[in-house]
Amino acid sequence: MKITAIKQQVKRPDRYSIFVEGKYSFSLGEGQFATSGLRSGLEITEAEIADYKDQSEFGKLYEKTLNLLSFRPRSEWELRDYLKRKKQSPAVIDKILNKLSESGYVDDKKFAARWVESRRLLKPTSRRRLTQELRQKRISDADIEEVLSGDDTDERKVLEELVERKRARYPDRLKFMQYLARQGYNYDDIKEVLKD
After folding, report:
1. Helix/strand/coil for 39
2. Model confidence over 16-53: pLDDT tens digits?
3. What is the pLDDT of residues 66-123, one digit of tens each?
4. Which of 54, 128, 160, 179 is the most exposed place for a label (fewest CB within 10 A)?
5. Cα-to-chain-centroid distance, residue 188
6. How far apart are the first and last CA of the chain?
7. How far is CA 150 from CA 19, 112, 116, 146, 153, in A?
8. β partners of residue 2
9. CA-wise closest residue to 60 among 83, 37, 40, 78
10. Residue 95 is inside which H or E element, if any?
11. Which residues, at least 6 apart from 106, have a Cβ–Cβ distance to it below 8 Å?
């Protein structure tokens, strides 16, 4: 069997369509194509075509996963869950996560540090709440402890700022205290801040 044409895709210029014996056979991403050595006129076997089709599917899935990471960093568990929902085999999931990890895109400790930094900047919250959020992302307790031990945010000051911002929305003291407790603040600290 012979490769009869290689065409850059119109809608996805970063992908190349490979035609074998005049019919579309598979497509490869730019990086995959550059390292493949494929060219028009090259003789190719059925086994090689099957291998390139597997590479093509892997490349598409890898690109989708990278796209997901472009919106915000993700924990390894979140990516694994995403790939499971895409009905991928454990072997493919491990292969993608390994490639992402080697490229520095998946690192739970860095993810946790960015998460804490982001939450402290955008929506100040308690240490307890941050721990809870990171556990929901399946970050290990050791990584959570290490990241939070490097966080020198004054919890009391954060609580005082939150009370100042939200006091008008909660005229009922008991409901306000319940809200603050749900945010992960210590009951004694809540009482003290509200007393002040």
Report:
1. coil
2. 999 988 899 889 988 888 888 888 888 888 898 888 88
3. 999 999 899 999 999 999 998 998 999 999 999 999 998 999 999 999 999 888 888 7
4. 54
5. 37
6. 82
7. 55, 12, 10, 7, 9
8. 43
9. 83
10. helix 90-102
11. 74, 76, 79, 97, 100
Average pLDDT taken over every residue of the chain: 88
Return the DSSP state at 2: B
User: CA 41, CA 3: separation in Å to the nearest integer?
Assistant: 5
What pLDDT is stored for residue 107 in this prediction?
92
Rounded CA-CA distance 120/140 in Å is 20
Pairing of strands 3-8, 23-29: unpaired
- CA 53/CA 67 separation, integer angstroms: 21
Range list of β-strands (E), 10-58: 15-20, 23-29
Q: What is the pLDDT of residues 122-135, one digit of tens each?
A: 877 888 889 999 99
Q: Which of 184, 180, 153, 181 is nearest to 164 (CA)?
A: 180
Alpha carbon separation from 162 to 99, 132, 157, 158 (Å, rounded) = 42, 19, 9, 6
Give the pLDDT band (50/70/90) at residue 139.
very high
